[in-house]
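Hello forum,

I keep getting stuck at the same step: I have a sequence, I want structure tokens, and every attempt I make locally crashes halfway through. Rather than fight my setup again tonight, could one of you with a working pipeline run this one for me? It's a single chain of 95 residues.
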Amino acid sequence: MYRLKYYSLNKDEKKELKNNFYNTEFGKSIKNRLDRLFLIGIIGILFSIYLFINPSNKWDIVTGVILVVASIIFLVGSFKVRIRKLNDYLVKQKK
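Reply #2:
Ran it on my machine without issues. Output:
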């Protein structure tokens, strides 16, 4: 079973781990990619809210629902990948 050691850290240790990880070359590239995914998810949710408020036909509502689902997948996925990469860095750092 894959255990996440990240959740056992306190607030200060998590902040220090994030600073150390994001100062590496790999961490900088991952942070840019994950921030982009997060931004795409937020923009998708905002656009789907617009489609729900001003529907011109019934397909706008269907498109809005599909867009909300995809945006939530992007948001949750970006958080899960961020935690997994931080945990991998923490495990490799301990060895």
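The mean pLDDT is 91. If your local run keeps crashing, start a new thread with the error log.
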